Amino acid sequence: MSLDKSVIKGFALMDMSTRGGQYVGNWRVLMPEIDEAKCIACGLCATICPEAAIAGKPKVKPKIDMRFCKGCGICANECPQKAIEMKQEAKK
Amino acid sequence: MADFDVIQGNKALAYGVKLARVEVIPTYPITPQTTIIEYLAEFVANGELDAEYIHTDGEHSCMGAAVGAALAGARVFTSTCSQGLAYMHECVAQAVNYRTPLLLGVTNRTLGWYWSLGPDYSDIMPELNLGYLVNFAESNQEVLDMTLQLYKVAEDYRVLLPTMMSLDGFYLSYSQERVWMPDQNLVDKWLPPYKAPYPVDPTINDKFPTASIPSVMHTPMRRIYEEVLQDSKKVIQEVDASFGKTFGRHYGGLIEEYKTEGAEVLLVTMGSMTTAARRAIDKLRSEGEKIGLIKLRFMRPFPDIEMREIAGKVKAIGVVDRMMLHGTRGGGAFQDVKAALYNSNVKVPLQGFVTGMGGEDIPIDDMYSMGKKVLQVAKAKRIEKEVEFIEHKLTEMGKPIEVEWAEPIYPGSDGCAGCGASIIVRHLLKVLGPNTIIINPPSCSGVNYGQAVRVPWVLANFAAAAAYETGVYRALKKKGKADKVYITSFAGDGGTADIGLQSLSGAAERGELIIWLCYDNEAYMNTGIQRSGSTPLFSVTTTTPAGKVIPGKQVRRKNLEMIMAAHRIPYIATASLSYLPDLERKIKKAVEVTKAGKGLAFLHVQQPCATGWYFPESKTVEIGKLAVQTGAWPLMEIDEGNFKLNVKPKELRPIAEYLKPQGRFRHLSEVQLEYLQKDAQIEWNALLELEKRGRFPGY
Ligand SMILES: Cc1ncc(C[n+]2csc(CCOP(=O)(O)OP(=O)(O)O)c2C)c(N)n1
Ligand code: SF4
Ligand code: SF4
Ligand code: SF4
Ligand SMILES: [Mg+2]
Questions:
Q1: What residues make up the domain containing A53?
Q2: Is the pLDDT of residue B218 over 60?
Q3: Taking an 8 Å Cβ-Cβ cutoff, which residues of chain B contact chain A?
Q4: What is the percent of chain A with per-residue pLDDT over 90, rounded to a whole number?
């Protein structure tokens, strides 16, 4: 009996360590923009973003990774300070 | 007279069913079959087709309902493919001895194995030898015409057997082609209503079909059924000829020959690939090659005599297969042709090809080279390699991005913008941590988030997710690891309330120490928004459209909490993505209960779905809040029998605030709206009452 992994043929695997997201930022129609002045760093937007595209937690100002933001607008809709506005993106 | 329309194969089939005035239609969605049952739902809801439409809870039930209806004497249609067909299998087999001439449409799709939405014949292959007449269509016109023909063949008392029609997923099911529509009056005359010889109806009959005969009768019965199948060949020819006379189109019975005059070499194909083969043959003929084409129109009964006759006239035959018979070295059609020739006088080299698996396209160029190959075989009079696999290189895929991210889910998934399921899976993993195993029945979340999380995410078969979970848990328990890992489902409402319920019920009753998390978007989203047992009253889905006669879903949803409470499991809770601290607390509680060895924990989390509920995606969380505050989705828990409401507004907000922003309720009449308002209040009062009592009855 061989228990040598190199003799295994045709066995497709899913690799947990190398998976990563696609750049879905190009799905976006509108772009969230945080008004630093209004933001009280409550952390809600980072908690709620479906994409996990916002880095942030309570007492830390949020930062959106635009490579992954799909522009759904949930953060803007939920921000208690109305500190996020969905804006037309300047065309690159 | 006749009129034409440019439609997809699935619509052609639905029109065929409508023209045949089918009486009972049990359904269950699966891609790429689903639009068939969506078109039919629309016909029925609008009063264009007077049929009993049955929204079943899984394919096993779906085929069960089909056989039952046919036993009672109705003309019946149902359809499925792939996993669904495999799950149906037991009832598929039963239709034969009950002599139910129903039609089962199969929009071919790979049977997992590795999953794919694309077609090959691995799904229909295990169904071929049960005693059905099995037809393979090449074009959408053929789909419609054969729907009518198959009923006429099957309902002939010389046959009285069920039939299957194969139409390739995507290549036919979702491709637009011109289709001539037969005139309804002509169809009515040509295909009169089905008259069952022995319907299960004690008011008119005292004999009925049976499933049991003495074993000594089995062998003779097998012989007789084989005779019936062979005799059906004549009926197939007759019906095709009569169809041609009436409607002006005919197909030539069990096989179709294309440019076989004077051919020295033949290619044999089936289904939609034939169209590319025709073009390749044209090209080879124009180059002076004496090559022709045989399309296998019926795989059962197999055209053995027909093949022998033709094979005797040529020097080599190539058989192109989209169906692999593992362990035999070759494809299904190849082995059947070989078997048909073996004991005959015909001795001709047979070259097998296997290609187009998992839905890969079979281009004209490939057909051309396969033709060339067979011409070579004819010249050399021998075969180098009996079966060749025609393969292509993987085109360079976009490399996944390696991201530095502390989150348990990588950003950049395939899910819709604003998908609530993503919010739930994120917070589930945030609480459970990296030593988590997720068992996932087929669903939106599997397709979109299975590849994006940092933990094992195991795709389970739809009806068996709780059993997969049980197996994983028991194995780890046996190995002394059960304390170190968290095992949870991430299951849709379809996978929980409908097709997965039996398996879940078993796990709950056995007291498996696992978590069942159902994220409920109140429909089958992955297959395109069909109703589930959790779709609320009056909601529109693609199988409960806002029809002129039947507007929306007509029955209330299942109460999953009560179902689970009947199992007396230690922890049951509803939750919402709009109340994350409450959700996280409940996940922790579920962990506690399972780790304490108390039993299965059931979490039921509502997931507003912008795509399926038709509201702007920015409102996902807002809608979730409104659901709780209007009483549409009360937050509650049953903790070892103690009932508690977790969010208790002093007064419920009007249900309209929740319903109005959602497109799925746009059609609501004032009366319906009022009904829903009353209903929400009654349910809420009952919950308040329950809370006053404190203990849940039965615990
Ligand atoms: C036996 C079987 N039948 C049908 C399907 C097709 N199918 C895949 S996902 C799905 C719908 C899932 O609905 P739900 O469980 O509510 O999850 P959602 O997609 O809504 O998140 C269906 C019908 C299948 N994979 N297997
Ligand atoms: S939700 Fe609004 S206030 Fe809170 S951190 Fe985000 S932007 Fe700032
Ligand atoms: S718009 Fe949506 S995806 Fe983009 S940061 Fe806000 S919540 Fe996240
Ligand atoms: S259809 Fe609904 S559940 Fe599926 S990914 Fe889109 S938003 Fe999520
Ligand atoms: Mg669902």
A1: 36-87
A2: yes
A3: 114, 398, 400-403, 405, 407, 409-415, 417-420, 422-423, 426, 451-452, 454-457, 580, 616-622
A4: 80
Q: Is the pLDDT of residue B1 over 50?
A: no
Total number of domains in chain B:
3
The pTM score is 0.96
| Per-residue pLDDT at B396 | 75
Specify the pLDDT at position B482.
93
Cα B108 to Cα B8, B81, B100, B125, B632, distances in angstroms: 15, 6, 22, 10, 39
> In the predicted model, what is the mean pLDDT of chain B?
96
Structure token digits, residue B609: 């779905």
Q: Is B348 exposed, middle or buried (0-12, 13-18, 19+ CB in 10 A)?
A: buried
Same domain, B439 and B380: no
Model confidence pLDDT, tens digit, residues B594-609: 999 999 999 999 999 9
The rounded percent of chain B whose pLDDT value lies above 70 is 99
Looking at the complex, report in whole angstroms how far the Cα of residue A68 sits from the nearest Cα belonging to chain B: 5
Nearest to B90 by CA among B69, B109, B62, B115: B62
Backbone φ and ψ for B188, nearest 5 degrees, come out as -55, -40
Nearest CA to ligand 4 atom 5: B415
Q: Which residue's C-alpha comes closest to atom 6 of ligand 4?
A: B416
Q: Is the pLDDT of residue B648 over 80?
A: yes
Which CATH number fits the domain that encloses residue A74?
A: 3.30.70.20
Burial of B381 (0-12, 13-18, 19+ CB in 10 A): exposed
Ligand 4 neighbours by CB, cut-off 6 Å = B 415-416, 419, 421, 444, 448, 521, 525, 609-612
* CATH code, B170: 3.40.50.970
How far is the C-alpha of B236 from the C-alpha of B248, rounded, in Å?
Answer: 16
The beta-carbon neighbor of A74 closest among B400, B409, B418 is: B418
pLDDT score at A92: 56
Domain-located, residue A24: no
Instruction: Please say if the pLDDT value at position A87 is more than 70.
Output: yes
Residue to test with chain A: of B449, B454, B580, B621, most A Cβ within 10 A: B621
Residue B80 forms beta bridges with which residues? B106
Query: Contact B620/A50, CB-based, under 8 Å?
Result: yes
- Distance of CA B207 from the midpoint of ligand 2 (Å): 74
> Domains in chain A: how many in total?
1
Give the residue numbers spanning the domain of B151: 4-212
Report if residue A47 sits inside a domain: yes
User: From CA B662, how far away is CA B676, in angstroms rounded?
Assistant: 14
